[in-house]
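Morning!

This is the sequence you dropped in the shared folder:
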Amino acid sequence: MVKTSADANIIDNFFRTSPIWRLKLFLHNRPTLIPAMVLILAIAVFSLLVGERFFAANNFSLIIQQVTIIGILGVAQTLVVLTAGIDLSVGAIMVLTSVVMGKLAISYGVDGGVAIIAGIMLAGLCGAVNGVLITRLRLPPFIVTLGTWSIFYALNTWYSDSQTIRGDDIESTAPILGFLGIPYQFFGARPTLGATFMILLFGIFAYVLARTAWGRHLHAVGDDVEAARLAGINADRVIISAYIMSGIIAGLAAWALIGRIGAVSPTAGEHDNLNSLTAVVIGGTSLFGGRGAIFGTLLGALIVGVFRDGLALWGVHVLWQEFTIGILIIVAVAIDQGLRRLAS
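The structure's back. Tokens below.
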């Protein structure tokens, strides 16, 4: 028996009116809902496994401090991933920028504020290099940023001479470099100004992505680049701007990194490029572009922080902590692919 197009339409309509299909569509249109539920569930589970230690104010302070750098880099990564790109170099840009800030202020006597601005400008230039290579040479973002990741780390090792700038030197010469590491009291906890800066950054870009033409263009390019071009959007310009902004935010992360560790280290944050991408993926932003929400990345960073902290308090070896995070990434990507197939 041969199925007619009418039969196919009946079957298609049946599935599209089923409760499961409606649930999937509901979740597809609300990308932060799943990570929010995962975060709540994780907090509930670890509160049972660990007990009062998990809810201690100092423990919450530790979690927030641990996710500050990942969260800031996650903002940068989200902008790029929304365009269906990827930036494996954000961690290298951050470390190189922190070294440049420290060397300018401590070794060359440049004013601390000027050193920070110069470092952020350099970070934006690094992002521009990524964007231009991707758009002008039509190279895959993965390959380009993997290559620049190696280049920026090599430049970092050469320029720093593998030497750490001590916190005492920063405090005596350019204390503004460590400004974002200053803690303050908040309902018994002691978050740092860097954590507040991270949350402010998320708020700013939540507005930018939702309320500005540039934010809508990022989504449009990531969803369908050819359709975006037909709609009059200069896709190459949008992509380059996304990578430039990603670099600038990585430069801001460099400033926060100095405050976080209290020094300038050429080896600090080596794996934060992957950690930030983990936060983006777990937070519900699609690696295929066009779908996601900036606050999902914040939730993703908090999920990573809660899992690592909870497992550590429960006595789980760091090896199995990483194992668990790996499972979370795979599950998040599998869910994303399922939701994309539904919407197509």
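Headline: The mean pLDDT is 87.

More detail when I'm at my desk.
O.
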